[in-house]
Design brief:
This protein is α+β, with helices and mostly antiparallel strands. The protein contains eight helices and ten strands. The longest helix has 14 residues.
Length: 297
Amino acid sequence: MNFQKQYGIPSLGIQIKATQGVPVYAARDGIVYYSIDNYNIGINRTMLMHTDGYVSVYEYLNRTVVKAGDIVRRGQLIGYSGGEPGTRGAGFINKGPNLSFMIFKDAVALDPFDILDASIVKDKSVLPDGYQIKYLRDKYARPIDITALTLMTGETLAEREYQFLKLYGVGVYKNSQFREDATKGTNIDKDVVICIAFAESTLGRYLTTSNNIGNVGNNDRGDRVAINGVLAGARAIPLTLNNAYLGNYHTIKQLSRYGNKDGKIYASSPINWQTNVLKCLSQIKGYYIPEDFPFRV
């Protein structure tokens, strides 16, 4: 949407056409600096403060679901899009449903397209002039194409986790409680455990050895380690990620030979393991997960 052409004033961000009431998610981890929810007139907006001086702002929300001081994770629901003239939070000049999205760095407005991955847009023809090249550059700079993925349905992370486990899990691994129990007392993202189990054994469908859904201890030499019990098999994944060899790693790309050429690794695959983990995480989280995604929480 060309904001200046439509409204006669410049915009500090981008205007995204969106049907009224579409879920809006946090672009990055952060803390809610303020969240305004007007029931009648005025503009509904939420501002998130991130690290390194970055701030993201979401305007014309029909409804917000966070409040000042809340800590939010990337991909967490923060509100619903609005902008339909005369509706709650739309302000006075809106001519149709949209989301206004802005990014600031040290109080200076930045072009969001300079920071965002433009290739997540399924139809590049909707991108403003000048961003077609960035679309292609972003698309070929990563190992997977999220536009080819079928994202899980559900507005919340829990709903998408449920859908993924229902679709791919076998037996007990259809129950999300296994990953809660597996990560209890650790600092590992629960969805990373799901996705490593998916990459290694398709969540129990193709087990190399009993209960070893993460193939912990199995290697290319043919060594195989059976694990005594379902919970022990799931828990072996986060415990391994916190062992003496991997305990200082923080990102997905450090765990396989794809992004870690010389150090200790979890998976020896040069590409497939990481690709499958990232695809899985993208489907569950509901947005593209890059290779430098932090697996610790």
